[in-house]
Specification:
The protein is α/β, with parallel strands linked by helices and 884 residues long. It is built from 21 helices and 24 strands.
């Protein structure tokens, strides 16, 4: 409540008290007050304020019943008083009476009426000149039950508080009345609007609606209700799309603007209407004018929850609405008691009017059209009102407190004498400490005079013509909703399935891997995808890159990173299986060659092909085939060093001896052209030593590279935005160049000397097979080197290394060994026979051994003979004497 309003009320109270105490010789005269009063005197009396007649803007009161159901509230107090008087355990030997007045639902009338409950106000306020019917009569009461509306209860509490008369309301829920500085003597037996808004927020949160609109009426009821609703909505993460205030006296244009604002925020499908029935009716009228019926899920406060009839012809616009009102337990005994009442024997001054209104008859007509013997029933339209129960609880609360007060202070006093034992401050303390089980539940007041009650949640559905189905009950004690029925969504035009809960969201959740770009309000955002290597951070509002070798984990909705499984060649890969199989075949084939050479170690063809160098090359080929399998093994620091060393060494182990053999052949034939002198260092030992030196150079280079460059197994991620990590051996470019250059130098030198010996006689084809071997090797390396350095994946480079090594070793076997094997098996006998028949120019070179190196045959002129595979003869018999 605003501070200015508080000040105005305090000032008004002080002025009123000043008038009361200074005008002691005048009678208080207020014209136009309701004259009907329901009084039943007892030893002690309770005052009561009900809104019986209609509201009038010009006069203190209207001239007809506001609604027939009002009588059920009045009679509920009568019923409760009779039960107290009939109960010997409560207020024994003391009768309880009542004085019921009408405030016509008008705050100013309420203020005037409660003056009747101020002690000793009576005749001191009039000098005898005013009409007796308009003079305020004073009634001796110990407390007051009422009033209906929060605004009328405020008017009453403003006067009753300073007079120290306790007041208990049965339906006023405004949180403004919780202010104990302004209203110290006010209590109530219904939960406050704050608990109602908490129930609404809990209900909205239960269905996952996070984007709602609010329409509230001007004044303490609507404004405080909106304030509390916003507080609890913020706590539960519910956003308010738009909040529209309905001013008093607003016209059609203002209501159209409110309706358009709701349509303008159509995603906020849930609309909370915190107002009275008049404002709700005008709002629904505006919705119909815009042709937007059945577009919203309406949530109504208790201001119109139990007054659907007041919506008139627009009630169907609110079909499907969820309404909240304080829970009230029906009392079947009271319903039976009320139905048994008869108008002609009833002392209630409004009962005949109720009867006439209900049965559409008249007692004043001649003859009377009303029948006293008629019975109230559902057949003639009578419906018990369950919300009358708090009226009974208010009476029982007063009776309980009075009973304890009298038993504690005046246990021996009976009858009307007990009045002297009762005063306002003492009674207020007993009321505050009251705790008992009443008709509507347990009554226990907090420090602000409020109780923790329940709210019933109902849904407006079609009936006769409408009805309200109970959905659940919200408890202010447990702060939970107990659902009893499932709601229906069939009254909404935008839901495909009437059984599924509709959505009310500003923005839908982002897809996995998308982050939110926050907008206003907080429930609204747009989504944007993070990069592929980024995870969601800051509660999904930002992205952050995973560390190297890590990738967003989909199992945690991209909120954590998981290590990427490294890619390397596995034994089970198809290409790895093929390469290993080829390596095994090559190894077996090389082993077969070795066995064959050992078996035919003395064969002239094998002797003539530098047998010792051949064995050395076979050893290098063995190493090469074994290295292929090593290259396909999972990379480790040790395997990287070993594989690099063996790869470098295996190439030199083959081409070092091959270069030695090629140079030897070249020197022999070059020397034969120039002189008959034998070349130096062509013995087997010398050749073996030379080949060993060439291999040793590579050993030194490889050892240096292995130690200095220290190749290790490393993880690499070529593209940070690609989920790909490789495990490979790390060797820098300098290390590769160091051994590649030496191996290529050996191959190039072999090619050079093979080229130089290309014009040897046809029957000496050793140099031709060497040429074919080294030329093929050059082609392989020319294809390998660019392919290797341009390959994007490390495992592809490893595959290329393996393939190149396989081809190198296989080419050596095919071109250097298979012809010797073939010559040994098939050509040697034929060569001997042919040698004795053809004229040849023979010369032999003493090699220092007992074996022939080769026999050279020149082709006859005019012939077109192709080269023979090999001709082997003991060269000692063919060499001229001057070269021995």
């Amino acid at each position: 409540m605003k501070a200015s309003q508080c000040v105005c009320q305090i000032v008004s109270t002080l002025l009123l008290l000043l008038i009361l105490f200074q005008t002691v010789h005048l009678k208080l005269y207020i014209p136009g007050l309701p004259q009907k009063r329901y009084i039943r005197q007892g030893d002690i009396n309770l005052g009561a304020i009900f809104s019986v007649y209609k509201y009038s803007a010009e006069r203190p009161c209207g001239n007809s019943l506001r609604s027939p159901i009002v009588l059920q509230f009045i009679e509920a107090m009568v019923y409760a008083v009779e039960r107290v008087n009939n109960d010997s355990s409560v207020l024994p030997n003391v009768s309880l009476g009542f004085v019921i007045l009408d405030d016509c639902l008008k705050a100013s009338t309420t203020g005037a009426q409660v003056l009747s409950f101020i002690p000793d106000i009576g005749d001191y306020f009039c000098n005898g000149s005013c009409p007796s019917v308009d003079v305020i009569t004073s009634y001796d009461v110990v407390g007051v039950v009422g009033s209906t509306k929060s605004s009328t209860s405020i008017a009453a509490a403003t006067i009753l508080g300073p007079a120290q008369l306790p007041q208990i309301s049965y339906s006023s829920t405004s949180d403004e009345l919780s202010n104990k500085v302004l209203y110290p003597y006010f209590l109530r037996v219904v939960p406050t609007d704050e608990f109602q808004t908490l129930a609404m927020a809990t209900f909205i949160d239960h269905y996952g609606w996070i984007y709602v609109s609010v329409v509230y009426s001007a004044g303490s009821y609507g404004e405080l209700g909106y304030t509390h609703l916003k507080k609890y909505a913020d706590e539960k993460g519910i956003c308010i799309a738009t909040a529209q205030k309905l001013e008093e006296g607003a016209g059609e244009e203002e209501y159209n603007a409110v309706a358009k604002a709701l349509v303008g925020h159509i995603d906020a499908r849930v609309v909370v209407v915190f107002s009275g029935p008049l404002q709700a009716k005008q709002l629904f009228r505006a919705i119909r004018r815009l042709k937007q019926e059945r577009q919203f899920i309406w949530i109504g406060s208790d201001g119109w929850a139990k007054r659907i009839a007041n919506l008139g012809e627009f009630w169907d616009v609110a079909l499907g609405a969820f309404t909240f009102s304080f829970y009230s337990e029906s009392v079947p005994e009271y319903e039976t008691w009320f139905k048994a009442k008869r108008p002609l024997s009833e002392t209630n001054p409004w009962f005949k009017e109720f009867w006439e209104s209900h049965f559409k008859c008249s007692f004043s007509a001649v003859p009377a059209t009303c029948n006293d013997s008629d019975v109230l029933s559902s057949a003639n339209g009578f419906k018990p009102v369950p919300t009358v129960t708090p009226v009974m609880d208010a009476v029982y609360t007063f009776a309980n407190a009075l009973d304890r007060l009298l038993k504690d202070n005046c246990s021996t006093v009976v009858g009307s004498d007990v009045h002297s034992c009762i005063n306002g401050p003492d009674l207020l303390q007993y009321l505050k400490t009251t705790a008992f089980e009443a008709e509507n539940g347990f009554v226990l007041f907090d420090a602000n005079g409020n109780i923790l009650g329940k709210h019933i949640i109902e849904q407006l559905v079609e009936g006769s013509p409408y009805s309200q189905t109970t959905i659940g009950i919200y408890s202010s004690v447990t702060l939970n909703i107990t659902f009893s029925n499932n709601p229906t969504w069939k009254y909404l035009n935008w839901t495909a399935n009437s059984s599924s809960v509709p959505e009310a969201v500003c923005s839908k959740p982002c897809e996995p891997g998308e982050f939110r770009i926050q907008k206003q309000p907080l429930c609204c955002w747009s989504c944007k995808a993070c990069r592929q290597n980024e995870i969601l951070t800051e509660n999904g509002t930002d992205c952050a890159s995973c560390a190297e070798f890590y990738w967003p984990d989909r199992r945690t909705n991209y909120t954590t990173c998981t290590r990427i499984a490294a890619k390397y060649i596995h034994w089970g890969d198809i290409l790895a299986i093929l390469l290993v199989s080829a390596s095994i075949l090559g190894f077996v084939g090389t082993l077969a060659v070795f066995v064959f050479y050992v078996k035919h170690n003395s064969a002239r063809c094998i002797k003539a092909s530098s047998r010792e160098l051949s064995y050395l090359m076979i050893a290098g080929i063995f190493v090469g085939y074994c290295t292929v399998a090593g290259l396909l093994a999972p990379p480790t620091d040790v395997s990287c060093k070993v594989n690099l060393f063996l790869f470098c060494l295996s190439c030199s182990w083959v081409y070092g001896p091959l270069l030695t053999r090629t140079i030897r052949i070249y020197r022999i034939f070059e020397a034969g052209k120039k002189s008959n002198k034998r070349p130096s260092f062509i013995s087997s030992k010398a050749q073996f030593f030379a080949a060993g030196c060439l291999i040793a150079i590579q050993v030194v280079i490889s050892t240096y590279v292995t130690i200095a460059r220290s190749p290790t197994a490393k993880y690499s991620m070529p593209v940070v935005t690609e989920r790909y990590v490789e495990l490979s051996c790390d060797l820098d470019l300098d290390g590769w160049i160091s051994f590649l250059v030496y191996n290529l130098l050996l191959v190039v030198c072999c090619s050079l000397f093979a080229f130089k010996t290309r014009k040897l006689p046809d029957n000496f084809n050793e140099s031709r097979f060497i040429s074919m071997c080294v030329y093929t090797t050059l082609v392989i390396w020319m294809a390998f080197i660019p392919s290797y350095f341009t390959a994007g994946k490390e495992h592809l480079k490893t595959m290329l290394l393996s393939i190149a090594l396989l081809l190198n070793d296989t080419v050596a076997i095919v071109f250097l060994y298979l012809p010797k094997i073939y010559a040994t098996l098939y050509v040697q006998s034929e060569s001997r026979a042919e040698t004795s028949k053809r004229s040849t120019m023979n010369f032999s070179l003493n090699t220092g051994a007992d074996t022939a190196v080769s026999t050279i045959q020149g082709p006859s002129r005019g012939t077109n003979r192709g080269p023979s595979l090999s001709v082997v003869e003991p060269l000692e018999d063919m060499l001229p004497p001057n070269m021995e």
